[in-house]
Amino acid sequence: MTMTERPAGPAEKGGACCAHAHHDDRATRPDAEPPEPARERVNRRWNEVLQETRVTQTGVQILFGFLLSVAFTPLFRELETPDKVIYVMTVVFGASATGALIAPVSLHRFLSGQRMKDELVETAGRLMVCGMVLLALTIGCTLLLILRFVVPGVLAEVLVGAVMLWFGLCWYVLPVLLRRRSARRARREQR
User: Fold this and answer.
1) How far apart are CA 70 and CA 40, in angstroms?
2) Following DSSP, what letter does each residue of the chain receive, concatenated?
């Protein structure tokens, strides 16, 4: 057992560990592998969170760095007030996304050795979802700021709306639909 783990309690033994952060229905499928022990499950899930964090942190940090440099360009002074408001919102969303997506590292560092890995995994999962929402808003605002310069009229807003709809479908609707389909299949197989 690593220092951030704790022995499996009643909730983990029943498979309800961190139900909101990740769904694992291997135990309910007849053709599935045997259920993994609570300690192995929490370690696997923590490693998954770390991998996801690495991917998202890189993207948000590059985007945020780009956004910070925009304010120091000569063209920035020529922005009208609505564009400056969009820029400020974009930078705030980017900073917030950076904070949420890096927070799991800080949590781990401060709570290492406290035997709280289940709580770390659950909290990190929620922070990742929050960070992804903020990242989508950052990307949407960045796109809006850029497209307002190159596309005439309301077409910029329409295009950004379409991209944000696409993000919503890919990042949120699709996973929810897949989870529901998996749950329905598991219920049918149990009958």
Assistant:
1) 46
2) --TT-----HHHHTT-TTTTT----GGGSTTSPPPPPHHHHHHHHHHHHHHHHHHHHHHHHHHHHHHHHHTTSGGGGG--HHHHHHHHHHHHHHHHHHHHHHHHHHHHHHHTTSS-HHHHHHHHHHHHHHHHHHHHHHHHHHHHHHHHHHS-TTHHHHHHHHHHHHHHIIIIIHHHHHHHHHHHHHHHHH-
Contacts of 132 (CB under 8 A, 6+ apart): 56, 101, 171
Report pLDDT digits (tens) over 130-185.
Answer: 999 999 999 999 999 999 989 988 999 999 999 999 999 999 999 999 999 999 99
Indicate if the pLDDT at residue 19 is higher than 70.
Answer: no
pLDDT digit string, tens, across residues 82-92: 999 999 999 99
Count of Cβ atoms closer than 10 Å to residue 145 Cβ: 21
- The overall average pLDDT reported for the chain is 81
Contacts of 35 (CB under 8 A, 6+ apart): 15, 26, 27
The two tokens of residue 114 are 């406290």
Among 103, 159, 100, smallest CA distance to 133 is for: 100
* Residue located via tokens 């309301």: 154
